[in-house]
Specification:
- This protein is mainly alpha-helical.
- It has 12 helices and no strands.
- The chain has helices at about 10-15, 20-25, 30-50, 55-65, 75-85, 90-115, 120-130, 135-150, 155-160, 180-185, 190-205, 210-235.
- The chain is elongated, with a radius of gyration of 19 Å.
Length: about 240
């Protein structure tokens, strides 16, 4: 198949014509393009969130949600000062972390699909996973101006990373546990969009059945949700 359009044009085409685009990605994965875009998106959103976060109020609210009442006003001030001081580093740390995490997930997809009979290469697996995540990047880019245009972010927004009502956390009440809150946050429009086109991508690039592609993507998605919920429990947010 001929290479129609540049890799940059795929950033839009993967959303509007995913089947055709993944057929091109199968020949030339060009995984570094969505990787760079995602790292920049994470960094930019992190800086925007940092600029709109009242760290003292957020820390106090989190402690209240976890029924922790042992922090004094001085402890809260010190914690907030530390977060404020190093918050901007989150853009760098977040960018590095997302690069590592996306690579590891691409590796898991590669192993999983190979075990299921696909002849997909690691580059194709990583590329399919990253290009399939473009809806999530789009959500980040939409969120940045919304965050910057508003006032201080609420604790609920910070915990759910929901800055434009794209997930189900709007259903949460004041008595909703952190665990349920994180579960609601996982049901997100952009994440679901990403799951759909990623499954299509692996079906085309990996040359596997729809059932195998969806099985692999749903397995990895549910694993990610389980890790998120497990982290909440480990932090005392049952």
């Amino acid at each position: 198949m001929s290479d129609n359009g540049s890799a940059l044009s795929w950033l839009v085409a993967v959303l509007t014509s995913p089947a055709k685009t993944f057929a091109q990605i199968a020949e030339k994965p060009r995984w570094w393009v969505p990787m760079v875009v995602m790292i920049l998106g994470v960094g930019a959103l992190t800086l925007a969130v940092h600029a709109r976060t009242d760290y003292r109020e957020h820390t106090a609210n989190v402690m209240e949600m976890r029924n922790v009442h042992t922090m004094s006003a001085e402890d809260l001030d010190r914690a907030a000062e530390m977060q404020e001081k190093f918050g901007s580093l989150g853009a760098v740390i977040g960018g590095i972390a997302v690069g590592v995490i996306m690579t590891v997930i691409g590796l898991f997809y590669w192993v999983l699909l190979r075990l299921m009979g696909s002849e997909i290469t690691f580059a194709q697996s990583l590329g399919t996973h990253l290009w399939g995540a473009i809806p999530v990047v789009l959500g980040m880019l939409i969120a940045i101006p919304i965050v910057l245009a508003g006032g201080d972010l609420s604790t609920e927004q910070l915990l759910s990373r929901n800055f434009m009502a794209s997930n189900l956390t709007f259903l949460a009440g004041e008595d909703t546990s952190p665990l349920v809150f994180q579960l609601l946050a996982s049901i997100d429009f952009f994440a679901i969009w990403s799951v759909i086109i990623t499954a299509l991508g692996f079906q085309i690039v990996g040359r596997v059945s729809k059932g195998v592609a969806w099985g692999a993507v749903l397995l990895m998605t549910l694993l990610g949700v389980a890790i998120r919920l497990g982290s909440t429990l480990a932090a005392g947010g049952g």
